[in-house]
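Hey, quick one: can you model this chain's 3D structure?
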Amino acid sequence: MVKFAVIGTSKITDRFIEAAKLCKNFELTAVYSRTKERALEYGSKYEAALAYDDLDELAESREVDAVYIASPNSFHAFQSIKMLRGKKHVLCEKTIASNKKELEHMIKAAKENGVILLEAMRSVFDPGFKAIENNLIKLGTIRRVTFQYCQYSSRYDNFKKGIVENAFNPVFSNGALMDIGVYCIHPLVKLFGMPKSIWANSVILENGVDGAGTIMVNYGNMQGELLYSKITNSKLPSQIQGEKGCMIIKEIADTREVTIIYNNGKEEHISINKCDNNMYYEVEELIRLIQIKGNADVYNKCSLMELSIMDEARRKMGIKFPADV
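Sure thing. Here's the predicted structure for all 325 residues.
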């Protein structure tokens, strides 16, 4: 049994616990929040035995094996490194760090302390993504990739009223690229690696946060388009175009439908059976790695490429975070 603590008590943590409870070797042991009262309140909802309002105490606890971190992006590096130095495995919510330099420090701390650091990029652990990977060969030579994820944020209504919540506050290393665009970038690098060149542009809102953006990448023999937004919705699917056919992907962040349309007009529908809450698969993988005493090198390599693209995209867009200084 792997004893988990959670840092963060928002809806995403609810979703994590809901999924993690389906894993037979998961046990929720502790909750951290900024106040003991909130930690106790949240912990009682899930019958967690321990509550913390001190990160050092949590890091030193012998009752906790692993920590799920779902705080704002700007806190990820500091909190992760503290837990890793306390010999805790860490599953850190996307985007795993504010920039590539932070992630490099996090990976170094994990290696020095013999524990696992894993980005909670739920979409690439689940059967939907494996269906994409396993069927790519049917498309022949890949020439164009278009991944898009545009989801109107419920917090944008408050933003328009002058109420700036964390999701629209660049102080917390947030914005459309970090919260939504990452769902397009990570699958791209996991499938195709690091591009040769990057172009990027964005819609900047009045407080300097990005509300939507487009990233173009070039691999020499293949082009990629990444479209994302927190201020509009899109009904169009993602797609991968090859010389033999086109793969249509419904919802790149939670793929449940994949269709290949070949050049001769024939259609192939690929069935995907998976959990309703696809956070389950990232928890299962972390637990598996812990139990076999493995490492997350292959996953961290993708996270490093992801942040390399995001750093360059932000440079071209003129988006800077306090964490960059």
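One thing worth noting: The CA atoms of residues 260 and 272 lie 14 Å apart.
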